[in-house]
Design a protein that fits this description.
Number of strands: 14
CATH class of the largest domain: Alpha Beta
Number of helices: 8
Helix content: 40-55%
CATH topology of the largest domain: Rossmann fold
Radius of gyration: 18 Å
Strand content: 25-35%
Oligomer: single chain
CATH architecture of the largest domain: 3-Layer(aba) Sandwich
Strand order of the largest sheet: 2-1-3-6-7
Distance between the termini: 26 Å
Order of helices and strands: EHEHEEEHEHEHEEEEHEHHEE
Shape: globular
Length: 224
Amino acid sequence: MKILIIEDEKSLCEILQQWLEKERYVVETSTNFATASEKVSIYKYDCVLLDVMLPDGNGLELLKKIKAEKLQENIIIISAKDSLDDKVLGLNTGADDYLPKPFHLPELSARIRSVTRRNGSGQNYIIFGNIKLQPDDFQVFVDDKPIELNRKEFDMLHFFINRPNRLLNREIIAEAVWGDNIDQADSFDFIYSQIKNLRKKMQQAEANCSIKAVYGIGYKLVEN
């Protein structure tokens, strides 16, 4: 799962990034309105943590931009402005949650899990075919039997299982699992080896779905 932190206080931004990376999220950051606006236009995120007061613009204007362009990101406002009017304005503008500063990091993690579940299946697990994936504790089961995946294999399967039967190009997969800057890589051959290992483990566990390659374009998760 990929998260964008939009926060102009660099020390707080670094703390949030370190915490969320320990929680196994792919994390990107921006400390100003202009860069954040560019990022949300180019890249896709599962959740955006949005500060309202930015040095070169208002976070609520960025929120309006995201909603106007019908981007699917889950938005949590993190703001020092904690009056009822501020919360109501943020939520009415389109935010999925509002977390006033200061806050505890475990609460932030819980809020992220909550909004992603709320705007997804509503469950704390995802099922496709006979595969059951539990994002909160990083477990995968095939016919209720656990299979062992490394972090990138899990992240890749999580990305696919949230988008079943959709053709995903290699650049999109790379950005989701390795982060935005990976789009500057000379090639995406490393994705093939990761998918090869994931396929092998799925086959050994007798999964009734598989990752199919579409030559020259990318991959999709389909039921056999």
